[in-house]
Design brief:
Layout: H1 6-13, H2 16-38, H3 40-43, H4 48-66, H5 75-108, H6 125-140, H7 144-172, H8 175-182, H9 190-197
C-alpha cells in the first residue's frame, strides 16, 4: 500500500525512522554532490542516456524522501529496510570516494582501459557502484518506484552502454579480450575480493 494523500505524507514524517533516514540521506546527499563537483569530469563520462536515467532515479528517490510512493510496512520491518538501505548508501559512497581518488588519473586520461585497483575485480566498477547506490537509496526510503526504476530502466541502459563501450575497446586493443576473460563485466568477482579481506 503506497502513500497518496497529504495526511499519509504527514503521518510518514511523524515516523521517527523516516525522519532519521531523511536527515542521514540529506547529509549523505550533500557529501555526494560535493564529491561529484570535485570529480565532475569523471561523473558524466558515461553515455548521456545513462546520466539522464541516473538523475531521473535521484529525482524519484527525492520524491520518496518526501513520502510519496513509499511502501507502508510494519514499523519493525520499515526500520530494518531503512537501516539496510542507509548502510548500503554509506558504504557505496565511501567506496566511490576511494575509487575516484585511486583512479582519478586514469579516469581523467584518454587511456583505453585499466587493469589495477578496482578494475582487477570488475571491468565496470563505477557503473556497478552507481547501481548499488541507487538500490540503497530506494531501500532507505522504502520506495518500490525507485527500486523498480533502477531495475527496469537504469540497469538495462547501463548494460547496453557497457556493451557498446566494450565492443569499441575490443577493436582498439586486442588485449582487452584477455582482460574480459579474466574479469567479470558488472558483478565483482567475490572470490578475489574475499582473498583481499581474509
Amino acid at each position: 500500500m503506497g502513500i497518496t494523500g497529504i495526511n499519509d505524507i504527514t503521518s510518514v514524517w511523524l515516523n521517527d525512522g523516516h525522519r532519521v533516514a531523511s536527515f542521514c540521506l540529506i547529509l549523505i546527499g550533500l557529501y555526494f554532490i560535493s564529491l561529484n563537483i570535485k570529480y565532475r569530469k569523471i561523473f558524466f563520462r558515461s553515455s548521456i542516456a545513462v546520466s539522464v536515467l541516473f538523475l531521473l532515479n535521484i529525482a524519484i528517490f527525492i520524491v520518496g524522501v518526501v513520502g510519496i510512493g513509499e511502501l507502508i510496512i510494519i514499523p519493525m520491518a520499515d526500520s530494518i529496510v531503512r537501516s539496510i538501505g542507509l548502510f548500503i548508501v554509506i558504504i557505496t559512497i565511501f567506496m566511490k570516494t576511494y575509487f575516484y581518488k585511486k583512479h582519478n588519473q586514469f579516469l581523467s586520461s584518454s587511456e583505453d582501459f585499466c587493469k589495477n585497483g578496482f578494475y582487477r575485480y570488475v571491468r565496470n566498477p563505477n557503473s556497478f557502484m552507481d547501481f548499488v547506490l541507487l538500490i540503497g537509496l530506494g531501500l532507505s526510503v522504502v520506495s518500490p518506484f525507485s527500486i523498480g526504476f533502477t531495475l527496469i530502466a537504469y540497469l538495462p541502459s547501463t548494460l547496453v552502454f557497457i556493451n557498446i563501450k566494450e565492443n569499441r575497446l575490443i577493436k582498439i586493443d586486442e588485449n582487452y579480450i584477455d582482460y574480459m576473460v579474466d574479469v567479470n563485466k558488472f558483478i565483482p568477482n567475490l572470490k578475489m575480493l574475499l582473498k583481499v579481506f581474509f
